[in-house]
Amino acid sequence: MRRSERRSAPSLSFSVRPMRSHALLLILCTVGLSSFAASKEPLQLGDALRQNLLATAPMPDYPYEMRQHHVEGSGVFELFFDYDSGRLREVHVVKSTGSQMLDGYAIGALKLWKAKPHAVNAVLVPVRFTMTRQR
Q1: Which tens digits make up the pLDDT trace of 16-26?
Q2: How far apart are CA 125 and CA 53, in angstroms?
């Protein structure tokens, strides 16, 4: 190799080093921004409402036939959404209301929920069916 060819090689390494640092900076920014994405941990309903993450969230009505028979109960349901579309994927019973029928009514209403796209993965929803009026 000639001396002039050897001298041109270091100038090539100078242009590669800034590219390496830019690539490293890009990777760090990507990792940092991904930490702002929705957590896999379920949000409490109040937090999801305060942050305006839900597009549609009708609460279950207390069914007349269950009120007529004085069947009451409180439960917690976990809703899983598709992160990209916001569509509901699954409803899990975390804590039953104590009545399979009330659980069924709750799940039926919760199936109508939709989150905003890229907003949330899961939400914990407390549901209460009681004879007394709540304010």
Answers
A1: 455 555 555 55
A2: 14
Topology classification of domain 43-129: TolA/TonB C-terminal domain (3.30.2420)
Neighbours of 2 (CB within 10 A): 7
pLDDT digits (tens, 9 = 90+) for 54-74: 999 999 999 999 999 999 999
Euclidean distance between CA atoms 124 and 43, whole angstroms:
6
pTM exceeding the 0.85 threshold for the entire prediction: no
Max Cα distance, the chain (Å):
98
Each domain of the chain, given as residue ranges in start order, spans 1-36, 43-129
Contact (Cβ atoms closer than 8 angstroms) between residue 118 and residue 38? yes
